[in-house]
């Protein structure tokens, strides 16, 4: 029999009595939105604490808010561990949440004072609680093997152009191409397009007019081509994850429909049996009356 009460506090405690009720409570949109709101509020308060003026005026209030929010986060993690037991630690996102909250519980005094600064990492919990952000991060993580090969390709391009640049411009521009290390750094600046024209290419072209034949192919290969391949890999991985998620959702829907269909058939069968028994009873009554 369903438990009915108008008191929301009693309703929450009733739901926490069994694991299924606890899981359902933790997965409700209201609870998730509450956690997201607290994460945003915590991020704002931590940011305000960096202002001496605000800290002098509201420092004690900000500290208390931070402590209360940390208590809520700790209770959230504890309830999830109770609800999911050992399965809680099988999810990388749950481990991520657990570590962030655990770091916040370490006393930030003495040599561990830097841990107080790491409180801002709690804001990163938005990644786990907002599905779209989680999809982006999962896409990036899943793309790492392919991105690794892009890094190998980029290193090959850098190495080839570093050898060519050092051989060609080492004597005229030793501050930029004096050795492989300097050339690598110069090429990195060129790849980022940070003052590559006014600071590197045009001054060199005043002495060597054909220097652009070195820079233009490098920029096309290292910046535009490699960047587009990188974006293509991430977008393709994101599409794959989207398709996989849609397939999982379709499978859950089919299972739900199948279960509903089975329950409906069972219900109709029970009604048919009741009707049959009722007809037999009516037939018996008519027979007796005759």
Largest sheet: none
User: How many domain units?
Assistant: 2
Give the rounded overall mean pLDDT.
Answer: 81
CATH topology label of the largest domain: Helix Hairpins
Strand content: under 5%
Task: Kindly state the number of beta strands.
Answer: 0
Output the radius of gyration: 32 Å
Which structural category do the helix and sheet elements fall into?
mainly alpha
Provide the CATH architecture of the largest domain: Orthogonal Bundle
| Span between termini | 45 Å
Bulk shape: elongated
Notes on the structure:
With 290 residues, the chain is mainly α. It has two domains: 8-129, Up-down Bundle (Four Helix Bundle (Hemerythrin (Met), subunit A)), CATH 1.20.120; 131-290, Orthogonal Bundle (Helix Hairpins), CATH 1.10.287.70. The chain is 81% helix and 0% strand. Helix 2 runs antiparallel to helix 4 (52-84) and helix 8 crosses helix 13. The chain starts with 7 loop residues before the first helix and ends with a helix. The model has no long low-confidence stretch (mean pLDDT 81).
What is the gist of this entry?
With 290 residues, this protein is mainly α. The protein has two domains: 8-129, Up-down Bundle (Four Helix Bundle (Hemerythrin (Met), subunit A)); 131-290, Helix Hairpins (Orthogonal Bundle), CATH 1.10.287.
Question: What keyword list fits this structure?
Answer:
Helix Hairpins; mainly alpha; 290 residues; 2 domains; Four Helix Bundle (Hemerythrin (Met), subunit A)
